[in-house]
Amino acid sequence: MASSFLQFLSSMILLIALMKLSISGKLADGYNLPAVFKPSPWQLAHATFYGDETGSGTMGGACGYGNLFTTGYGTDTAALSSVLFNNGYACGQCFQIRCAESPYCFRGSPFTTVTATNLCPPNWAEDSNNGGWCNPPRTHFDMSKPAFMKIADWKAGIVPVMYRRVPCVRKGGLQFYFQGNGYWLLVYVMNVGGGGDIANLWVQGSNTGWISMSHNWGASYQAFATLSGQALSFKVTSYTTKQTVLAYNVAPSDWQIGLTYQATVNFK
User: Fold this and answer.
1) What is the rounded distance in angstroms from the CA atom of residue 24 to the CA atom of residue 13?
2) Per-10-residue mean pLDDT for the chain, 268 residues long?
């Protein structure tokens, strides 16, 4: 009985929130929508927050973006439950989120746009409806506190939200952060526009053909190949849109581990 009531309550919240969104006519005012990737339908989820007002507690994360201030993501970020995280293939995706049907929602239910930068892991010691918010099959956003405070009073702790995928609008080209060594190249792909995500990555040295890189974890891909002393190009396919872009001569022949190299192309 309790489970049926909760399902009914969730359905009613979803229906009411969608009606309000339809009436408002302000789903994404001012948001520049590229032509290729369109927003998804609104869906119901819940959101909490982690870290403090500075966002310092959200640095790093399972996607491997490191310092989110220096890599351009800032504090408009969220950790995703494993259902959304999709083994790291959701890293870089952008979501619009707004508080729904809670007394803690700010007036007018403003939305904010966040980038997926981390995983909110399951907490099997807690019930999914009482502390285990990120347990499967729950769809949940653990937002940075600054992002959460744009949609609701932080004292709420947890609020129902409406969310949808939206295009990621980025400045400049794709960015490639190098780790590894001359025989093993580990690349983190950042600043991804459009769908925001990566499905496949290939690298080409000035003396090689295209080499397929395997998905390591999060936003990182690896190739076991001797590539030192060669200029490097990359071929990138989006997980969501299946688009492929070619980024030629991204890194010079004297490339170094620990540096980030930027392409002149990006997804739209």
Assistant:
1) 16
2) 46 50 39 62 96 80 93 95 97 98 92 97 89 94 97 95 97 97 95 97 98 97 96 97 96 97 96
Residue among 120, 111, 59, 113 nearest 84 (CA): 120
What backbone torsions phi and psi does residue 87 show, to the nearest 5 degrees?
Answer: 55, 30
Dihedral sign computed on CA atoms, order 99, 102, 104, 106: positive
Report the distance separating Cα 222 and Cα 212, nearest Å: 9
Ordered domains of the chain (ranges, CATH): 2-166 (2.40.40.10), 175-262 (2.60.40.760)
Residue 130: what pLDDT?
84
The position carrying tokens 């490097």 is: 232
State the pTM of this model.
0.85
